[in-house]
Amino acid sequence: MERIVFFDGLCPFCHYWVQYLLERDENHQFLFAPLQGKTAHELLPSYFMSVDTIVLLEDKKRIYTKSNAIFRIIKILGGVRKILLVFKFLPTFIRNFFYDLIASNRFVFRKPLEYCPVPRADLASRFLD
Predict the structure, then answer these.
(1) CA distance 108 to 120
(2) Cα 13 from chain centroid (whole Å)
(3) From CA 22, how far away is CA 28, in angstroms rounded?
(4) Residue 32 and residue 104: Cα distance in Å, rounded?
(5) CB within 8 A of 65, min separation 6: which ones?
(6) Which pTM value belongs to this model?
(7) What does the radius of gyration of the chain's CA atoms come to, in whole angstroms?
(8) Do residues 33 and 127 touch, judged by C-beta distance below 8 A?
(9) Average pLDDT over residues 38-45
(10) Which residue range is the domain that position 118 belongs to?
């Protein structure tokens, strides 16, 4: 099953979480692509192109965004972090309120990057753009 995590390629906060996923994705279940890249424009409908939103695309059919994407990623990764799935039972509008609060303030502590960083050579195959 192909799973692509789309993220804001100019966001230092997003890059931190991409690195977090890369380190814990022992089975190489996820590929990564910036929302500003060619892959996102080819595979995602335009209304999913907001750089304030994480998007998980599974098998080019199923799309998860915001808190739903995060919970799906947690479920796939498994392990002790699955305890966080208890919060999935909160209504989506409440979960996404907190997601949006964090997303809208992600540049408070670090300014946006000028360009999407090039991944390390050993991780390059996991990035589509």
Answers:
(1) 27
(2) 11
(3) 8
(4) 22
(5) 48, 53, 54, 55, 56
(6) 0.89
(7) 14
(8) yes
(9) 94
(10) 3-126
Question: Do 58 and 2 contact (CB within 8 A), yes or no?
Answer: yes
Element (H, E) at 5: strand 3-7
In the DSSP assignment, the letter for residue 69 is H
* Structural domain count of the chain: 1
Tokens of 117: 């960083």
pLDDT in tens, 46-75: 888 777 899 999 999 999 999 999 999 999
| Cα 10 from Cα 111, distance rounded (Å) | 9
Enter the tokens of residue 83: 């305890």
**Res. 42: pLDDT tops 90:** yes
Give me 27's structure tokens.
């089975």
List the structure tokens of 108. Answer: 């408070």
> End-to-end alpha-carbon separation of the chain, Å?
19
Query: Is the Cβ–Cβ distance between 55 and 44 less than 8 Å?
Result: yes
Q: Which two tokens stand for residue 116?
A: 């999407």
Tokens of 10: 């100019």
| C-alpha span between 7 and 114 (Å, rounded) | 15
What is the tens place of the pLDDT at every residue in 89-101?
999 999 999 999 9
Instruction: Please report the sign of the dihedral spanned by the C-alpha atoms of residue 70, residue 75, residue 76, residue 79.
Output: positive
